[in-house]
Amino acid sequence: MKKTAVSAFLVFILFATWAQAVEPQETAVNKSSQILLSGEIIAEEISKATGCAISPILGISVLGAYTYYTTPLDERDNVPWHAKPEFWAPLLVVLLGIILKDSSKIALPKIIIMPLDAIETLLEKNASAALGLLVILSSITGKGIEQLQLAGYDLSFSILPSAYAAENMGRAAASSGIAELGILYILVTFVFGLVWVVSQSFNFLIFLCPSSWLDLMLLTLKNSVIALLVGAYMLNPFLGLFVSCVIILICLFLFARSYRFVIFGTIFSSDILFKKSRKHEIESGSIKAFAGSLLDGVPPLSYGSLAKQGSMLAFHYRPWLFMSPETFTTRFRADECEAGIGTLSPVIITTGKKFDTDLTLFRLRPLYDSHEKKVAELLGLKGIRDVAFGKSIRDGYRWLLEQLGIGQQEKQLR
Q1: If we measure between CA atoms, which residue out of 409, 411, 293, 402 comes closest to residue 352?
Q2: Cβ neighbours of residue 171 closer than 8 Å, sequence gap 6 or more
Q3: Domain span(s) for CATH 2.30.29 in the chain
Q4: Quick one: which H or E segment has residue 40?
Q5: Which one has a higher pLDDT value, 353 or 87?
């Protein structure tokens, strides 16, 4: 599936670039086809979609301000709604507040800044993403209509039976141009959604990281990617397209795990932010959990429920959250596992051949925090133990590797 998506995307880009290089015949249909097949338009819109997907509020506010100030003074009253100061100026104020909040992470304890991070990641990121996609599609619509009008097409189609053949040809050409714009909508929406999912998983990784120093380093890395994309686009739109394609290809390979991490981060953020009391879930024999990286056949971070089946631990889950439910019986005996008191939430752990090596099998939801003893009783575990990470960069790095599943497979079990 990944290879097919990559191949289709590359073929489309190569075809669009080739079509731009070939001089078309001077016909109405060919003129309208330049709306979609213009390599510069494709480069510009894909670069915008990629940048806005990585950081929606930054992308749409900077894009609006740039459009407004590059428009001649006598035409600024006619700029699109997303380029008017009353739209992007408040977004810049919000962006400034986020920057100030992020800058204070080192000085303030993580426990104080975490609720603000939860609000930003869970609410602001999602809302600004929807707004960012709307801005991008509106921009494409405006350019498309402008191109059609410049080509001499009247978009108010007549339905009178006495219309001339030339008018019918014009309508067909305009309809072809509109269809091509629809294809561009689909392409841009696909790119935006793909990159946003990976970017949002990165936002959750930053949010859940226990080390403020590593948190800031990850944020700097993300902003560096945005700066690279913007810099490449400013030098040349096609250079921006190249950088965008590299980002898109990386996102294609990271999408499945990123999708699961977005689910993981959304549930964690909701539990941390709202702190809902769900005693009925804690009292039941089914424990909500996320799979670790040591379960053969179960993708890491899959969300489901954990229960005891005979003497073994069993995991019930739905692949991609909507497919048919599956039950996976692990190879770990319940009485050989423990409930660990984790940094952000409890974990189910076992011990490798080296007794100082803890292997994380499952991570529970934060709603089970302080209920580790009850979890151990429900699952028949041998006890509980404190395995929380510290706040140093080294501890944060260890936590990061655990979330990514790096190194877990290399550790030997009993």
Answers
A1: 411
A2: 157, 158
A3: 279-404
A4: helix 39-54
A5: 87
Question: pLDDT over 90 for what percent of the chain?
Answer: 20
The gap from C-alpha 273 to its chain's centroid, in whole angstroms, comes to 20
Residue type, 389: F
The CATH number for 279-404, chosen from 2.30.29, 1.10.3470, 2.40.30, 2.170.120, is: 2.30.29
φ/ψ of 338, rounded to 5, equals -135, 155
Using CB atoms within 10 Å of the CB of residue 93, give its burial: 0 to 12 exposed, 13 to 18 middle, 19+ buried: exposed
Which pLDDT value is given to residue 405? 59
User: Does residue 29 have a pLDDT over 70?
Assistant: no
**76-105: pLDDT as tens digits:** 888 888 899 999 999 988 888 888 877 766
Tokens of 14: 């190569």
65 Cβ partners below 8 Å, 6+ apart?
83, 85, 88, 92
Q: Helix axis angle, 56-69 relative to 39-54, nearest 10°?
A: 130
Rounded Cα distance between 222 and 130, Å, is 20
Could you identify the residue written with the tokens 């739905």?
Answer: 318
314 burial class (0-12, 13-18, 19+ CB within 10 angstroms)? middle
